[in-house]
Design goal:
The structure is a single chain. This protein is mainly α. The chain has a single domain, classed as Orthogonal Bundle (Non-ribosomal Peptide Synthetase Peptidyl Carrier Protein, Chain A), CATH 1.10.1200. Helix content is 77%, strand content 5%. It contains 4 helices and 2 strands, in the order ααββαα. It has a two-stranded antiparallel sheet. The longest helix has 44 residues. It is found in: Cell membrane; Membrane. It holds the Pfam family MscL. InterPro entries: MS_channel, MSC/AndL, MscL_channel. This is Large-conductance mechanosensitive channel. Channel that opens in response to stretch forces in the membrane lipid bilayer. May participate in the regulation of osmotic pressure changes within the cell.
Length: 132
């Protein structure tokens, strides 16, 4: 039982996944700090002086009825920043690596496959044999 668990943990995919989770959470903290400390004040500056942030109060004097558009805009910016980094740091290099690997496999297959003229001559020979 412990051997199976050890094999599972030492498999490359699990370690890569653990590293990705740690790096992803650290990057999410950076993006959250950026949006909370830089983007939120910029969005809040668009609001009025009576209301804190970009939004409006449904019932005056009741803080729970504040509709905060700034929080939605901030969440969208967070998502777009994280998605862009994941795409450009993880997806694009993996696609590039995958295409390089597949082109290498195609090249190896082409080298081991007989030439087109040999295949054509073999087909002609086989057809001639069946006509006799």
């Amino acid at each position: 039982m412990l051997k199976g668990f050890r094999d599972f943990i030492l498999r490359g995919n699990v370690i890569e996944l653990a590293v990705a989770v740690v790096i992803g959470s650290a990057f999410t903290n950076i993006v959250t700090a950026f949006t909370n400390k830089i983007i939120n004040p910029l969005i809040a500056s668009l609001g009025s002086t009576e209301v804190k942030g970009l939004g409006f109060q449904i019932r005056p004097g009741v803080a729970e009825t504040f509709v905060d558009f700034g929080a939605v805009i901030t969440a969208a910016i967070n998502f777009l920043m994280v998605a862009a980094v994941v795409y450009f740091v993880l997806i694009v290099p993996m696609n590039k690596l995958s295409s390089l690997m597949s082109s290498k496999e195609k090249k190896e297959a082409a080298e081991t496959a007989p030439a087109a003229d040999v295949v054509l001559l073999t087909e002609i020979r086989d057809l001639l044999k069946t006509q006799r």
